[in-house]
Design goal:
Elements (H helix, E strand, L loop, with lengths): L24 E10 L19 E10 L2 E7 H6 L1 H6 L4 E4 L4 E4 L1 E3 L11 H8 L4 H6 L8 H6 L2 H17 L2 E7 L6 H17 L3 E9 L10 H18 L5 E6 L6 H13 L3 E6 L17 E4 L5 H13 L6 E4 L1 H6 L8 H6 L4 E3 L13 H12 L3 H8 L1 H6 L17 E4 L6 H4 L6 E6 L2 E2 L1
Parallel strand pairs: 1-4, 1-5, 6-7, 7-8, 8-9, 9-10, 10-11, 11-12, 12-13
Antiparallel strand pairs: 1-2, 2-3, 5-14, 14-15, 15-16
Helix pairs in contact: 6-7, 7-8, 8-9, 13-14
This protein binds zinc ion.
Length: 446
């Protein structure tokens, strides 16, 4: 168990008058407080992934949107500053609840306008991912709706997705464009994500995914389209500060590893971070991509042993620039694959693993991180503790936000999820159970 940081002597600097986050908030009587402390410079790997920093009968004090102090309830209630200011503090009794950092959903595609119900039925009837794409479904079928939609209509759809995530305990989300597939519609998607982010209490990290799939009008001319991504989309998104990352879908039927390198190079030239979808449908060599310092490589269903070794070695060799392997079992589940990424092999080999929803209309229409945790435990043999760490602190590392997010420690953003369960293992146990009782974002109840 992690050593508790005592309240005594830790709260003295708090000034009530300079509180941007409303009244100071004190959560007490938390039977299981999962701090995920100590968070360090690097993502959790190996055995450390299962360490939750659990404090029994815990308490958390938040003020000014930040976590100020963390420890035992008895120490909090004895603290002289808290005793003196008790009336000005909003106190929440968390008896019978588990409190953990708000989930960091580090891979989502919320900028779409409609569910893909035709694809859903075709798949039930036995069509494969590629057969659906050939029949006019798939990613390209979401493009028309996005191109036609106004920025505000698109923002409404994005916001609806964010709100559904928040209700299930997610307080930080990565949001990709990728259903516009031309300069205007990709920029509009990023603007819509920005507009939705503005109206949402949580934190949003935007990603340009112009290279999601080659659009119909460039069929058979991947190179030409990649040039547009590199020369137009990436520079414009950077210039207007619309995205922090650039993503590429590097797979059979999408983009080649060479194209991914071109796009990564263009992104790096603009000072943007990079991440990629890799090895979802077939194996592609990921080692060459590592030199671009991707924050995350996602899916990894068909990753080779050599690439697992390269990912693990990279984690050890360059601690400041670690690449997280983000697994998205919601897609495997929804596609009915009956096969899941080999999380155990990745974790046991020392690769840092995160979990995300991959929320999107074609292959993973879920906003629920607790459901993803259930899938990870049941189908990928991750322990409940590993799944929670992968969905919080390692998700934060996958967005290079771990200095602010992903653990409950003094100085970090006061983003907390409160679950109506007695034991943290119940969070993945109650399949699609929606036990999230409350969410606190920047020290405010939502
Ligand atoms: Zn994705």
């Amino acid at each position: 168990m992690a050593k508790a940081i005592l309240f005594r002597g830790k709260v003295k600097d708090t000034r009530l008058g300079q509180n941007s986050g409303g009244l100071p908030l004190l959560l007490v009587n938390i039977p299981q407080l999962l701090t995920l402390a100590p968070s360090v410079q690097v993502p959790r790997r190996g055995h450390a992934l299962g360490e939750l920093g659990l404090i029994e009968d815990g308490a958390v004090l938040c003020t000014g949107g930040k976590i100020v102090s963390v420890g035992k309830t008895k120490d909090a209630l004895r603290d002289s500053w808290i005793r003196k200011n008790r009336r000005k503090i909003r106190e929440i009794d968390c008896s019978g609840k588990v409190v953990l950092p708000g989930f960091v959903d580090s891979h989502t595609h919320p900028a779409f306008t409609a569910p893909r119900l035709m694809d859903f039925e075709r798949r039930i009837a036995g069509a494969t991912y590629e057969q659906i794409a050939e029949a006019g479904g798939g990613i390209r079928s979401s493009v028309e709706g996005v191109r036609k939609a106004s920025r505000s209509a698109l923002a409404e759809h994005v916001l609806a997705g964010f709100n559904a995530m928040l209700a299930r305990g997610t307080t930080t989300v990565e949001a990709k464009s990728g259903y516009g597939l031309n300069l205007d519609a990709e920029l509009k998607s990023l603007e819509a994500i920005g507009d939705a982010a503005h109206q949402w209490p949580g934190t949003v990290v935007s990603t340009l995914l112009g290279a999601h799939v080659v659009p119909r009008e460039y069929e058979g001319r991947e190179e030409k389209y990649v040039r547009i991504v590199c020369k137009e989309m990436v520079p414009r998104a950077a210039e207007r500060k619309l995205a922090r990352f650039v993503d590429v879908f590097c797979d059979r039927g999408a983009f080649s590893p060479e194209s991914a390198e071109h796009i990564f190079f263009a992104a790096r030239e603009q000072g943007m971070g990079v991440r990629a979808h890799v090895c979802q449908l077939n194996h592609c060599e990921i080692a060459p991509l590592l030199k671009y310092d991707p924050a995350s490589l996602d899916h990894l269903d068909h990753v080779s042993d050599d690439d697992i070794a390269a990912l693990a070695a990279q984690s050890i060799m360059s601690p400041a620039y670690q690449t997280v392997a983000t697994l998205v079992p919601g897609a495997n589940h929804f596609l009915g694959l009956g096969r899941f990424p080999d999380a155990r092999k990745l974790i046991d080999s020392g690769v840092p693993v995160a979990l995300a929803t991959d929320y999107n209309p074609g292959t993973s229409p879920t906003t629920s991180m607790p459901f993803v945790l259930s899938l990870a435990c049941t189908h990928m043999k991750m322990t409940p503790a590993e799944a929670i760490a992968a969905a919080t602190i390692n998700g934060a590392h996958a967005l290079r936000l771990a200095e602010r997010k992903g653990s409950i420690e003094p100085g970090k953003d006061a983003d907390l999820a409160v679950f109506d369960v007695n034991d943290y293992r119940e969070i993945p146990y109650w399949i699609a159970g929606d036990r999230c009782a409350a969410v606190i974002v920047a020290g405010l109840e939502t």
